[in-house]
Amino acid sequence: MHLASLLPLIALPLSLAKNISISVGDGGLIFNPEVVTADPGDLLQFYFYPKEHSVAQSTFSSPCKPLTGGVYSGFMPETAEGTTIFQVTVNNTDAIYLYCSQIEHCQNGMAMVVNPPSTGNTLAAYKSAAKNATTVSPPAIAGGVHIDVTLNSTSVSNTTSTAGAGSNTSITSPTTSSEVFQGGAPSRASLQCGLLGLIGMSGLVFAMI
Ligand SMILES: *[C@@H]1O[C@H](CO)[C@@H](O)[C@H](O)[C@H]1NC(C)=O
Ligand SMILES: *[C@@H]1O[C@H](CO)[C@@H](O)[C@H](O)[C@H]1NC(C)=O
Ligand SMILES: *[C@@H]1O[C@H](CO)[C@@H](O)[C@H](O)[C@H]1NC(C)=O
Ligand SMILES: *[C@@H]1O[C@H](CO)[C@@H](O)[C@H](O)[C@H]1NC(C)=O
Ligand SMILES: *[C@@H]1O[C@H](CO)[C@@H](O)[C@H](O)[C@H]1NC(C)=O
Ligand SMILES: *[C@@H]1O[C@H](CO)[C@@H](O)[C@H](O)[C@H]1NC(C)=O
């Protein structure tokens, strides 16, 4: 009886947005994990490994080619693991196909999918088609924010400060910067509300137990 009344409280945090860490190029031309299931509101957080990878979005049918309006991290020439992450908010459950736009990386299987359809359009099929594709880098960083994690900072750096982490200066114009910023801000605010709720809820559960 007591347990039953607790269940709704325990179930609630499961519906909150979560952060999904994905390593990029750790030990080879690979995203890890390379098949991800994410809910709307979740944050994809890409950690870059040496030497110079990127995260770019394509369609399933045009592997290694930018999807217009898709996400792009820019090249991230990390000299040590995880100094800057690229963070993308998941807005729906549509499939998101991602590749590294470094020359030959996509052809060699450096691709991943978020929310693959239950049938067809598998990552294996994408990789197979990619072998014969030509890689194209997106024209500009888009659809996410760079976060400096070197000082355990959770503050989102603007593109001026991330330029040092490898962004091409010609594509980090102030216009791009503010657009990226405005897109990211609301989700962070709502995430913080969610976290406070989670903390409060846990306290309540513990108190009741
Ligand atoms: C997710 O990452 C953000 C940094 O972008 C951080 O502020 C937040 O606390 C993290 N949330 C969880 C649930 O770990
Ligand atoms: C790869 O491309 C070449 C040249 O366009 C074509 O002849 C060949 O059939 C393609 N192979 C596959 C597996 O698509
Ligand atoms: C989700 O929406 C935000 C805000 O418009 C955008 O920055 C982000 O790139 C979108 N996520 C995806 C996977 O397209
Ligand atoms: C960052 O966090 C890790 C783990 O919590 C800690 O060991 C390290 O000292 C922190 N570094 C800085 C610069 O605060
Ligand atoms: C952006 O970065 C520059 C250089 O690090 C800094 O001077 C400026 O205050 C930052 N602006 C914001 C809004 O954080
Ligand atoms: C920056 O990008 C532009 C346009 O793609 C390119 O012409 C230029 O060579 C790049 N600069 C660097 C330093 O990569």
From TrEMBL:
Region (Disordered): 158-181
Name of the protein in its database record: Extracellular serine-rich protein
UniProt keyword terms in alphabetical order: Signal
Species of origin: Imshaugia aleurites
CDD domains cross-referenced by the UniProt entry: Cupredoxin
Signal peptide: 1-17
Biased composition (Low complexity): 158-178
InterPro entries named among the record's database cross-references: Cupredoxin, Ser-rich/MCO-related
